[in-house]
Predict the structure.
Amino acid sequence: MAASAFIEILGFIAGIVICISAAPQIRALLRNPAGAKFESISRNILIVAGNLLWLVYGILTSSLSIAVMCAVGVLLNTLVLHFALVSRWGERRNDAVRSTPPGRSRDEHFVSKG
């Protein structure tokens, strides 16, 4: 029993270290959300998907440390992904507004005259 408790504690420590490693990136994005446009969306989607799979694995194997720390990882990486998507969406929206011909609203510009 002592060995399994040690393994769970070790799992929590490893998970905490991994979660702390995301803190500087998240802090930078909170201070400067515009920097999120340089985040790789595909990389962050894969990290979230991997964390979700590890979360399911932790639940299925009754490993509390894996399940809890991967749930935290999903939340942190989803936050980074959110910043990246919002940043890109804002850029595209601004580009659409800038490309609208003078005298026309953005909505009129995108309506097809079929």
Observations:
- Residues 62-96 form one domain.
